[in-house]
Structures are given as structure tokens and as C-alpha cells.
Amino acid sequence: MASHIVGYPRMGPKRELKFALESFWDKKSSAEDLQKVAADLRSSIWQQMAAAGIKYIPSNTFSYYDQVLDATSMLGAVPSRYGWDGGEIGFDTYFSMARGNASVPAMEMTKWFDTNYHFIVPELGPDVNFSYASHKAVDEYKEAKALGVDTIPVLIGPVSYLLLSKPAKGVEKTFSLLSLLPKILPIYKEVIAELKAAGALWIQFDEPTLVLDLDSHQLQAFTAAYAELETTLSGLNVLIETYFADLTAEAYKTLTELKGVTAYGLDLVRGTQTIELIKSNFPKGKYLFAGVVDGRNIWANDLASSLGTLQALEAVVGKDKLVVSTSCSLLHTAVDLVNETKLDDEIKSWLAFAAQKVVEVNALAKALAGQKDEAFFTANASAQASRKSSPRVTNEAVQKAAAALKGSDHRRATNVTARLDAQQKKLNLPVLPTTTIGSFPQTLELRRVRREFKANKISEDDYVKAIKEEIKKVVDLQEELDIDVLVHGEPERNDMVEYFGEQLSGFAFTVNGWVQSYGSRCVKPPIIYGDVSRPKPMTVFWSSTAQSMTKRPMKGMLTGPVTILNWSFVRNDQPRFETCYQIALAIKDEVEDLEKAGINVIQIDEAALREGLPLRKSEHAFYQKWAVHSFRITNCGVQDTTQIHTHMCYSNFNDIIHSIIDMDADVITIENSRSDEKLLSVFREGVKYGAGIGPGVYDIHSPRIPSTEEIADRINKMLAVLETNILWVNPDCGLKTRKYVEVKPALSNMVAAAKLLRTQLASAK
């Protein structure tokens, strides 16, 4: 019985690629140095999977930034602003598209389906001259083969590539991206021909958009694309991989009727209903790559249950046609549990990271083939039973409090217009008030202080003193820049979710459980294993300290319940909404303590609210109801004069704008600049928004410093669709990943732009 892995984490077990990328970007190392680190990581991954007994090992899932950007490079679809003049795309062009450069902004970045991974959105139009401009897929296949590992090269499928793209600036929004299919398929044919010539026996096309709500025209594009590729694919085994949700009956029919396709990879963890489609009608003689090992969470697989599922499928598709696989790429999970030295043995026994999931896949394949490792299965069953019965998982008081939430919608008593009036009397802010999103640059010295405190190398007094000094520096800088509503800069926090999880019960933490978010940015999601509560205040001391340093309003900074949920590895033994309500009650306690401590502006970030939206429209309403309700629970008890902010970043917000309004926050700051003011189109189309709103005026994920004139132009575009009295001026997101040499001039220009517009507005009266 064969085994397969859809994809694997790229960063390395201790973020080796992250550090190599940042060293290269900072001009501290060469391209050759970066390539050497990357080659070593790829070699290690391939050989690890081969040693574990995996038959179908992927290649071309490694990326220096993003796999969709890799596809854009392969197709030569470089926007003209980057000055690329043909030939093989090098690092300069590649990273300029990803990160921008001194003269031009980066391409848009948005969430990969409903994950916390971000991809670079292709910008396409009728005039794009596609050409085969990156041979990465072929090069990596040859590289693995030279190491003695025969792999399945993986490509983003042509239809998904187009469906994930957007019309370039200046191209009509109604332009049919699928009309470009005849232009990109010749390049796919070139790649396929080269892979065949290099000796490839299989090829994997990732077509994850098949799990979305697609119309007949979009489904027909898959049929047309693979019919066109059929002759070129002749002689290859072709796997079409889907993931993240069930397939509709129509999409399943389209998939299983594609020309020239040998195998279908299906997510049977998040797509359990797809199993019924397989049982009712699976094409004879085709392979099923059954994704029964979860690629999106860190819980050990219930091997006995998965084996039962596989045995039922084996009876349908045939013993020699069933391949055990992961539900999706393991990119979305941590790398290796072996590196976790501080997790206690009980919790550790409940977990499986990417390296362990590879072993699980192979163990299931061997069991199906009659070579069951009884000791491995017995240990797994024991761990499953331990988790179900452990007293540390359940807190009856928390469950009772969460159950009592039913029956109320937890809205504030006064409408937002009246609240904003009361807040303005107290805060006395100017027109177009300026603020930032929360974090300030995390310097090497600051990281050293936190690291040494965690390692007990410095005393708590020394730590508190150092953090207070950093807060004072950030407060003084903001006052010098004349920002209106201040933040304390979050110097005590390495990660916004991890920081809160460390202070809440029901959470566990890793040392090296890093997961790529975008580019070199990695996050270390907490593990929610049990019921959640707040033993004591979490941020009150630092917020009160910061407020004592200034007469200007100081924001209390919290992470909202939906974001904590969506940016954690969440327990899978109860519905997600129940866990979210528990977190909401904990954050509610913190909000009310901040208010009692004299904090008049409290920001409750819900950066990941859109990210958790189910991929199926039929499931949207239920998710939005409990997610928005969770946010309202956190602040339903505050006074009218306490201003509640929230922040959202890098997602397509337009389809949840009514839920955003229903959150009933007083002010929302939201990503806008990198998506080319896409958000503003909602207001142009007549959506009325009465609360304060700060669409980001510049992109903080790029080192580029925008000019005062550029920011003023963005604000003017906002004023064309939003009322002057509700508009705020702020960056897109927190500033922790930037350097002070970038932050100071950018914020200075932002404040100057706001003042320029205030003057113009005053003179126009």
C-alpha cells in the first residue's frame, strides 16, 4: 500500500530559511549563501520522507516566498512596474514582486483560502505576455533525482492559478481571467515536456479552487484545460490534488471526468462528506489519494478510526488503487515534535507535527497492506484515551459560564453615533485623527531582554525596567511625531496570540513550533487543549504604565477571541464556537479591568475574523453569527465613553462588510493600501458605515517609505466615499517587522499628510 505527502514545511525545523532570507535581504549574505541553505533544507526533507517509507514524495513545494508567486514567475507574468526585461527571473525581480522596493510597491498579499498563510496575488490582463521564465519545478525535480529520490513535481494548476488572480490595475474589473487559459497552457505544456524528458513518472496539479462554490463556466474551465493538456500529459501519471473542504457533487463529477487524469487527491478531514461521493461513484481504474492525516492541526491521528475509513474506501476503489495521504500540505503545521523539550509528556503524547504525520501516513499504509505495527497503534490508542479522560481538559465553571451566554446578543446599550459623540467630548480628537495599529519595531536588544528573562538570566525587576524604558521611548517618539492616539508598542510581546495564550488556562506552548505565515514571517501558534479562562489580568499593568507617561489617549491592546482561535491549533474534541465563547469571556474580563484602570481607548484586534470564514457560502451565516457575537461579548459591558477599536488585515473583507458593521465597534482599522483600495469599492457601492474607520494608508509589509503626497492622495480617495468625521489615518498593520529607520519617516509623512488634509478641509469650509 502506497503513501503520499501533499507538501511539507519550508522554513526548516529551527527557521533556517527565515534567517537566511533576512540575512540576504539585509545584504549580509550572498545569493549563493541563500541557495545553499535552501538546497540543504530540500535535501533533508526529501531524504527524511524517503527514509520514512513514503512512496510519492513531492518536489517544487519548497519556495523562497510563496508557491503562487513561483507560478507567476514560471509563467513570466511580471507586472511591468518591476522593469523585468525577460529571461530567467532572478531574486531581484522575484523579491521586488513579493516585498516591493525603493521605487515601487509590492503585489497584493491575501490569505490562502481559510488559513493563516498568505499568497501573492497575480495581477493579470489581456496584454500580459506570458513566457516560460522560471525553470524551478524542473530544476528541483532533477536536484532530488540526483540525490536518489524520485519525486512528484507539484504545480499550481492552471485553472486555480487564474481563479486566484485579479485584474491588474487599469484592467476592467469585469475582465474574465479564465479567458487567459489559452495563453498560459502552452507554458504548462513546456514545463510538462521538460519534466517528462527529465524522467518524471508522476505530476501533481494542485487545484484547490475546486472546493469553492463554482459556477458551470468555472467548472467547464477545468474540463477544457485538462482536455487541452491531455496529449502533452500522455505517458505521465497525473494527480489532481484538492484540499480544505468538501467537493460539491458538481465539482466531484467535473474532477472525476477530467481527461488524462490518473488520480484524485481529496481532503477527507475537512471534507468528510466527500467520502459519500466516493462511495456512490468512483471511476474504475483510477487512484484515490485519501487525505486522512490532518495537515492543518497538530493532534495525533486517531489511527484506528482512520484505518477503518481507509478499509471502507479500499472496498470501493480497490486495494492497489488506494494511496494514504495528508489532507493538504503540511506547510500549515509545525515541523517536528522532537524539537519540543518543554512540553510535558502527557500533552506531547497527544500531538503530531509534520515529521510525525509523515510517520502516521506510512504506518496507516503499512497497516492496510497487512503489516500493522501493533506497538505503534497501541501507543496511539492509549494517547487518544488519555486525552479524552484527562482532568486538565475540562473546567466545569468555564463550561457553565459559556453555556449561560445563550439567549443574549450582547450588544452595547447605546448606538454607535451616540457613543462616538460621548467619546469625542472626552477624547477631544482632531479631524482625521492619527494612530498606529499597536506594535513598534522589535529590536535585537528588545528580543535579547525577553529571551534572557524567559531563560532566568535577568531578574524580573531588570526585565520590567527594560520594558518600561522601551515603552517610554515609543511614547516619546509618538509625541514627537504628533500622533493623536498612542500605543505602548507591545515590547513585552513576541507574538500577539502567544502572549495572551501564555496567560490563559487551557493553552500549551512550543519552543520550535513555527509555522510560515508569509515570506520569512513565522508564527508559533499556541495549542488550545482544554477549557479556557483568565486566572489574572494580562495587560493592565503595561497599559496603565504607558498611560502614565502621556496625557494623550493610550490604547489598551488586546487580541480578540476569534483571532486567538483562528491563529491557534484548536482542540478538535468540541465545536470551534464553544472554544471561541470561552476565550471571549476571558477577554471580556480583561477589557473591563482596563476600563477600571482608566484606559479610555481599547483595541481588540480581530485580524483573523475573515480568515475563518468557511469556504462554502452555505456555511457563512452560522460562522459570522458566532464570530461576531464572540467579539460583542468582549466589550458589551463598557461605558459609552470607552472607545472600542478593532483591527483587521490582509483578507478580502468586502463579502463580510455587513458582519463587520454588526460587530458594533466604535472604530475599525483595516488593511487597504496593498489591495489597491479594494475595500473602498464597498462604500462606493453604497454601503453606509457610521462608525469610525481607518483604512490603512500605507503598506507596512514592505520596506518602502511612502511620501506625504502619496499618503495624502490615498486619504483623498477615502474622503471621496467616507464622511470626514469618521475617517482615521493609520498604517495597514502593526510595525513590529519594520526597522525604526523605515518607521520614523513613514509615520512622519503620515502625520504630515493628515495635517495637510486638515488644513485643506478647514479652508474649504
Report on the structure:
With 765 residues, this protein is α/β, with parallel strands linked by helices. Helices cover 42% and strands 12% of the residues. It is built from 27 helices and 22 strands. Strands 1-12-11-10-9-8-6-2 form an eight-stranded parallel beta sheet. Strand 3 and strand 4 form a beta hairpin.
Keywords:
single chain, 765 residues, alpha/beta, 27 helices, 22 strands, 42% helix
Structure summary:
This protein has 765 residues and is α/β, with parallel strands linked by helices.
Tell me about the largest β-sheet.
Answer: 8 strands, parallel
**What is the radius of gyration computed over CA atoms, rounded to a whole number of angstroms?**
26 Å
Helical coverage, percent range: 40-55%
Strand order of the largest sheet: 1-12-11-10-9-8-6-2
Give the termini separation.
77 Å
> What ranges have pLDDT less than 50 throughout 5 or more consecutive residues?
none
Domain Cobalamin-independent methionine synthase MetE N-terminal: 3-316
Function: Catalyzes the transfer of a methyl group from 5-methyltetrahydrofolate to homocysteine resulting in methionine formation.
Domain Cobalamin-independent methionine synthase MetE C-terminal/archaeal: 432-755
Cofactor: Zn(2+)
